[in-house]
Each structure stands twice: as C-alpha cells, then as structure tokens.
Amino acid sequence: MDSSSLDHTRNAAEAEPSWDDLKIFLAVVAHGSMNGAGRALGQSQPTIARRMRTLEECLGVDLFQRGPNSLVLTEAGRAVLEAASPMAEAAGSVPKLAAAYRPDPAAPVRLTATMSVTLFLSHHAGSLAQATAPIEIAYIPMRRKADLAAGEADIALRMRRMPEGDDLVVRKIGRIAFAVYASSPDVAAVIVPPEDPHLSTQAALIARFADGRPIAARIGDVPIRYQATKAGLGAAVLPCWMGDADPALVRVMDPPEDMIEDIYLVTHPRGRNRANIAQVSSALVDLFKRERRALIGDLPGK
C-alpha cells in the first residue's frame, strides 16, 4: 500500500461513523443479507452495499467476509456489533422516555404497587375516582420495582424500606400490617407462601404460628390465599385490612411489629409539575390517612 493510500485509510479510520450506517449494519446482521436488510428498511440492495462500504472505509476495517451467497462477520465486525447493539437499544428507548416527559392531561396516571396494596386500592377505587375525576387511574400490580425514570409508571407505592435514589421523590404515607387469619379458631393446617424472597417475612410469620401443624397448600397470590382461607383450608397470612373486614374470618395471631410495614409514595421529579399526578398523589395520601387504623389492624376495643 503506497503512502497516499495509507494516509487515506488512516484519515478515514479517524472519522466518526454515521449512526445511519451503523443502523444499516445492524439490519444486515439481523437479516443475514443485504437483500434482507434492504427489504426491511425499504432500500435497494446496491444502496445497502454502498453504505456498508462507506462504513468500512470510515472505520478502516472489513466488517464482513463476502462470499457468493453469504456474509460472515469478521472479528472486527463482531466487535462493532457488540458495541453498536447497546446503542440501538438505547436509541429505541428514547421515544418511550421522551413520551414520559410530554405532558398529556388526558393520559391515565399509571399507579403501581404490590398485589396486597393494589387490592386495598381497588376496594377504595370509587372514592379515589371521585377525588381525582376526571383523571383516569391505571392500576398496575407488580412485585418488582417499576422503573419510574424510564416511564414504566407515574406513581409507585413501595413497602418496607425507604426507596433510595437521587432521581426519586419519596414520601411516607402510612403503614400496613399482616396477621394470621382462619375460618375458625380451631386451626388444623396452615397455608404458606411459596419459596420466594419477596414473601420471606410472611413465610416466617406463618412458620412461627404453625407449631407443628401440617401445610395444606403453598399459595403466593393474595386473592387466592384469601379465598382458600375462607374455604377452611387452613390459616394464612393476610393483610389486616382484608382479614378484619371479613366476618367469615377470625384473627388467630396478631401482627408482630416486624409485620407492620411502612408504605412510601414514590414519583419521579418530572411528575412534580403535572397536575394529574399531583392530584392522584394527594388523593392517595388522604386515603391512607383515612384508613390508617384498618391498615395497621387496630381493632375496636383492643
């Protein structure tokens, strides 16, 4: 290679590759051919081939070994693929992230919580709807922590420990207690949660109560566990607001202090300036204040 060609290659390799060309490169890899990438992108095969040559010249390396009917990534091509793939994923999340920042008064406020707390909210959905009208609330029960920064939800209700993160606005709004309930004071068996770290404190509580009683079933889903308890299958851990409100159930073990968990209302800072999120947050604070005694299992006369 003469000095002029060497200088051209060196200068090209120092240039910044076009993101459009990198996207075409990813499409070629994904579809296995330039024809396939062209069909997916609505471009001709010669255009795809030309853009790949431009990218290779810019980078100063061959990305493919070209055969009569095949394309095989070179070692350099595999390295570029590994570097470019996260860029594509990040770029794909941009519209979703941007949408989370766009104010839309008509959009539902997405509220996520554990199943126990979501069930509690559903029992008071009428009063919440009245307090927040005409705002629509979307209830999203989930055990894992929703990523508020990525726009998975607008409000999260989290339990046990105060959520951490510089990009979160956190407020403690109440407490929720769990106790052991049965259909009769004479308990022959117990219903336990499955082996799940999210339910470990509940598993410990029912194990403390069991005292040699056999396990009738392992049920993690709270509504199903509640119905099985009412049916007389055995004693189980339930939220106090649920167990105390049902005359068909009796509390056979009061909630110990370690089963009274703090509840935190969590939003992202961008939600501060959204009237609909602020209104739903205020209604939630009022609800948890109003139902404080039921949530912590404070029975009348006790």
TrEMBL record:
Q: What InterPro entries does UniProt report for this protein, alphabetically?
A: LysR-type_TF_proteobact-type (IPR058163), LysR_HTH_N (IPR000847), LysR_subst-bd (IPR005119), WH-like_DNA-bd_sf (IPR036388), WH_DNA-bd_sf (IPR036390)
Q: Please report which protein family the annotation says this sequence is part of.
A: Belongs to the LysR transcriptional regulatory family.
Q: What superkingdom heads the lineage?
A: Bacteria
Give start and end of each HTH lysR-type domain. Answer: 17-74
UniProt keywords (A-Z) are: DNA-binding, Transcription, Transcription regulation
Keyword Secreted among record annotations: no
One Pfam family in the UniProt entry: LysR_substrate
Answer yes or no on keyword Nucleotide-binding: no
Protein name as annotated? LysR family transcriptional regulator
This chain's source organism reads Microvirga puerhi
